[in-house]
Amino acid sequence: MSAFTGRKFRVVAWAITCAALGGILFWAYRKYVLLHPDPTLTWVREGVKYELLNPKMLGALLLAPWFVGVLAGSLADLPLPQRVLSVLLRIAFVALIALGLSRLARTATTEKVATIYLVDVSESVTDESLDDARAALDKAFAEKPEDGVIKVIT
């Protein structure tokens, strides 16, 4: 009987498959994250700009081959479809954690003008000064752009 028949062959084939999956994931991680010239990954989808502010945390996905590797040696007395589903859910959970740690952000730019007025209304301020401040505020509210924001702190 040859060394590559039966159980030994399946174990070696499974180990090679897991190693290949790990190699493919590491290659993708190295190419698209580690060697990327910009420290953040940015893409646009349907006109909305998304960024990963800390993409190196996606390296947690490199745990996926381990989950696949221990599937064959699992002591759980479950049918194969349930074990496969269990591995897929574990990988999805780790992927969501990695995505959260990589700080996914939706970014946008705006040209809105925001102005804050600080008005002293204490007893030491004269009524003339308060009237001047009120006139300046009325003028500012009248001249403000439609999308502008004005706030008053007293």
**What is the global morphology?**
rod-shaped
- Please trace the helix and strand order, writing H or E for each element: HEEHHEEHE
Which whole number gives the mean pLDDT?
85
> How would you write the strand order of the largest sheet?
1-2-3
Give the C-alpha Rg. 30 Å
Largest sheet: 3 strands, antiparallel
* Unreliable residue runs: none
The span between the termini is 91 Å
Number of domains: 2
The beta-strand count equals 5
Broad structural category? alpha+beta
Walk me through this protein's architecture.
- By secondary structure, the protein is α+β, with helices and mostly antiparallel strands.
- It has two domains: 7-107, no CATH class; 114-153.
- 49% of the residues lie in helices and 16% in strands.
- The protein has four helices and five strands, in the order αββααββαβ.
- The strands form two sheets. A three-stranded antiparallel sheet has the order 1-2-3. It has a two-stranded parallel sheet with strand order 4-5.
- β4 (114-118), α4 and β5 (149-153) form a beta-alpha-beta unit.
- α1 (7-34) packs antiparallel against α2 and α2 packs antiparallel against α3 (80-101).
- The mean pLDDT is 85.
- Keywords: Membrane, Transmembrane, Transmembrane helix.
- This is Ig-like domain-containing protein.
- Residues 1-47 form the Ig-like domain.
- InterPro entries: Ig-like_dom.
